[in-house]
């Protein structure tokens, strides 16, 4: 299939971004350097084009019941204006996708899905709708999306874009009626994928282009997918395809907190509850290497010269200057155990640690 372009593609090319294919889209990986962009988000503010992400709107009398059937988290008693994170799972507990879902009204929900999974997720969501009085609208082609992230994000959004956002708490969402560049209703949430305070804005392509131009004129740092990955990894946020997949369940990924087993049912509940109760053969763990080496996805994890797992993501971390990895390893490994990662023909010793290597700084 030919590569797809977001509404900001021409802007990225004109700004000299390094472009590479990602999830079927030609996306910016970096503009200046991953380190500079990473640090801009950690200490100031950066903006990401995430218009490749997918959007689905579910409405109707059975909307809440349907979402709770699809989703591991629980919207019962959750008012409009709230956002929940969780997973959609297969009956065996494997992960279809992880997603943030906004409750916009009693009978209206807005789902954001990973770009690589749009077609799969759309088919999965539609196939589960039998017996529910809902309408499902696949809106990925209608929206662009910006992620404005960092400790200065609130001031940037209000000053540069003219959008009131200080009233939003973490994981809250609202709609705003705007008149320029055209009359429309946009959506803004206090969410993100960096471990810092920030906002995600969903709007028409024309409005997203206008907002990008305003942010560039205000000298907000444009950020590529390279630092998006380093930022999310440092704070222990999973990436679908690495830390979650059809073969890696939320329980294996250490995300049971987002699986609400007191709900009457959701797809995969019985399998996930069995995993949580009886245990799993492998789970995700953090590993901190002793040496300055760079572990990568797919590298073997060894203990006493026997392979006990495989790296899902690894980096020389920018914010803490350590070489770290997350790996899917035998569940017998516990915090403090000594292991090694094979990097090409050499092995580098390290210690099993928690998956979060840097503290999040969200607004409380």
List keywords for this structure.
single chain; 364 residues; alpha+beta; 6-stranded mixed β-sheet; 19 strands; globular
Textual characterization of the structure:
The protein has helices spanning 9-14, 34-43, 63-70, 118-127, 153-160, 205-217, 225-234, 269-278, and strands at 18-22, 25-30, 46-49, 54-59, 83-89, 95-105, 108-113, 135-138, 144-149, 173-178, 184-189, 198-203, 221-223, 282-289, 300-303, 306-316, 323-330, 338-343, 346-353. With 364 residues, it is an alpha+beta fold. The longest helix has 13 residues, at 205-217. The model has no long low-confidence stretch (mean pLDDT 97).
Compact description:
With 364 residues, the chain is α+β, with helices and mostly antiparallel strands. It is built from eight helices and 19 strands.
Number of helices, where a helix is a run of at least 4 consecutive DSSP H or I residues = 8
Report the strand count: 19
- Which parts are unreliable, with pLDDT below 50 for 5 consecutive residues or more? none
The geometry reads as globular
Q: What is the residue-mean pLDDT, rounded to a whole number? A: 97
C-alpha-based Rg, rounded: 21 Å
Query: Helix/strand-derived class?
Result: alpha+beta
SSE order, as H and E? HEEHEEHEEEHEEHEEEHEHHEEEEEE
Into which percent range does the helicity of residues fall? 10-25%
Strand content: 25-35%
Distance between the termini: 43 Å
Largest sheet properties: 6 strands, mixed
Strand order of the largest sheet: 10-11-12-9-3-13
